[in-house]
Amino acid sequence: MQRNTQKTVAAVSGGEKIFSTAGMTLMALFTAVTCILAPLSIPIGPVPISLTSLVIYISVYILGWKRGLITYLVYLFVGIAGLPVFSGMTGGIGKLAGPTGGYLVGFIFTVILCGLFVEKGNGRWYVSFIGMILGTAVLYAFGTAWFCISTGTVLLPALELCVFPFLIGDFIKMALAVLTGPRLAARIKGAAV
To answer: Which DSSP state fits 17?
Structure first.
């Protein structure tokens, strides 16, 4: 069952041209989902809780890392252009220079790492989960480093603001993605044939 699901993931995400009609439709759909869910954030300090990582974790099952990356970059450029799609219903290039700008850049690498592990994992959930952990660690590194630079905060207080409050929530998001991502990919593939 798990291997069949992985074959379905590969068929949905990487078994065809990136810019096929179906691929472009899925990328547009996930860009829209990201634009809708990412601004819905819970402010718990200078770094809010958002659903962006959950959308990315699930999207790589359906889109693969290449389409997932394009989808995230389109979302990022929409936000940089000024539409309020970033956390807290904000937008504009100034968000990149702000204390949370490192997260917006870090998500690029999160998509790539998570997607590669999902695609190369041959249906093994723990391989996908490891990819999500690594991708999130890179996200935390970018986010925390930029937070330190932009605010002048030293490392330990920055970790207390930028990483520690998010560990449990991100772990839950990863678990949800591992449980639902392959099933969603299988359903989308089933609906497409």
So the answer is: -
Burial of 134 (0-12, 13-18, 19+ CB in 10 A): middle
Give me the residue label for tokens 């490192």.
102
Reported as a single tens digit per residue, the pLDDT across 23-50 is 899 999 999 999 999 999 998 989 999 9
Helix (H, G, I), strand (E, B) or coil at 48: coil
| Tokens 């990582």, located at residue | 53
What predicted TM-score, i.e. pTM, was given to this entire model?
0.88
State both tokens at 68. 């997932």
Spatial separation of the C-alpha atoms in residues 141 and 143, rounded to whole Å: 6
Contact 115, 105 (CB under 8 A): no
Which amino acid type is present at position 12? V
Residue 49, classed as helix, strand or coil, is strand
